[in-house]
Design goal:
Rossmann fold; alpha/beta; globular; Gyrase A, domain 2; four-stranded antiparallel β-sheet; 3 domains; Isoleucyl-tRNA Synthetase, Domain 1
Length: about 600
Amino acid sequence: MSIDQILAEATALAVKELYGVDFPAEKIVPQTTKREFEGNETIVVFPFLKASHKAPDATAQEIGEHLVAHCDAVEKFNVIKGFLNLTIKPSFWTGVLRHVASTPDYGFQPVTDQSQLVMIEYSSPNTNKPLHLGHVRNNLLGYSLSRIMQANGYKVVKTNIVNDRGIHICKSMLAWLKWGNGETPESTGKKGDHLIGDYYVAFDKHYKAQVKQLVENGMSQDEAEKQAPLIQEAHDMLRRWEAGDKEVRALWEKMNSWVYAGFDETYRRMGVSFDKIYYESDTYLVGRDTVLEGLDKGLFYRKEDGSVWADLTPDGLDHKLLLRSDGTSVYMTQDIGTAQLRYKDYPIDRMIYVVGNEQNYHFQVLSLLLDKLGFKWGKDLVHFSYGMVELPNGKMKSREGTVVDADELMDEMIATATEMAGEPGRLQGVAEDERADVLRMIGLGALKYFILKVDPRKTMLFDPSESIDFNGNTGPFIQYTYARIQSVLRKSEDDYNSMDISNVAPSDKETSLIQKLADFNLVVADAGRNYSPALIANYVYDLAKEYNQFYHDCSILREQDDKVRAFRLLLSDTVAGIIKRGMSLLGIEMPDRM
């Protein structure tokens, strides 16, 4: 039981015995005492005033006296304006350290047969281009969230929906047919997703030239964009694809296979994975049939041009297109079909979509449509909405070929790590055969941490050079702290795990560090409730920063008292364990040497 739970229950008992009122312990939330005041934990007594019928200070005084007399953890207290500051006995903190150190999965809840199943969708790439910086944030958030939910005792299914059909796919296919000259990943030496992305850019270049020519010939911009021969051909190819044209389908399968091989390599380097992959080419038909059934039931309506729409004005929204006039599907149709297949495949208790905030309206509509179609889980879907990633020089545009490619970004991060590791004093203890792997961990750790430490809901500015600084709130700083602890432990000759340290009285700095360790389980639970890897990231940084202060102020290996030395070694080892466990929730590896 954590110190917060102990104090909450002891305080609830005090209110019961002092004032005869049952106050729920779960509503009592002790807080870490502010540094300018004496104490370790603070309890706000204002909620108890109705029960005590006394002034705040008098109520705090009575509860404090009761806790000192009846709670073994409390040594003394002080009262400041209705805030009850409690000092915890040193022996209690030593026990907390022993408990955290001896609990291999401290902070993690077990997954059982009775655990609820959470499905988390992330990545959702298109097969017309490689993954870019926006996908990087999506993948890192989704994968980290899956680990956090599992740490909170949920069964987790990591899923991906690949957008492998539609007009954007046909643009790449058409461009390859026209200007590809039979190029393949093997003949060009390019990853398949990069090769296809080049043809997506090529289509846009030629298409814009056609539109420009039509406008110069007197056509309006809007009409020119619709009538340009290339876009007409792309739409014709899409219709042929949906009609099952063998030639178009064969080309589609060949080019998609190149892209999937490229995606797999990028995912592997990024350190993310999936348990189940769905493809829009399989799910859109299910969605289309469901929409047509809804049309027959009067849930939707058909316009004169043959398109099918949903009237959502009674729900405060507008009219939503579900099927185009030519019968082809839109993203909403696909999402309806995908949702049905998923709930058929798995007994999902909670469905979480990790998708950028520009799709907030889309998921509001999807929830409404699924509910109207009679799927009881429609209202309960969760859209984990996150902000976009921006660069110092502006946003990314994939059609123009100005995206920050995920593969190139990872290469750049490792190259930057290599450059910074060349500074005097860096990576001196790393063997030559380990060096490349350590540099990979540092570069990718910097990338992941910099992205995940930001509140997911916020738009963020990504600066590669800032992310890889070995000082400050960065992944390399935390990795270096972990490696420093491993170095201390390697040099130690003490059997600190078996030594009796029960009589060691922790200093204020050591007590603060133990208290921070004990908070890990609360942080993991909070991150799960709020879908926020940032809470984990910033907790681990604070823990690493506090350990470095302890390391600077307190001798460890040169401490003469055997028991104090053993205590500090155990404290160091436990801090390293929690740092590694926390960073694992972010998908970040920890090198033993740096």
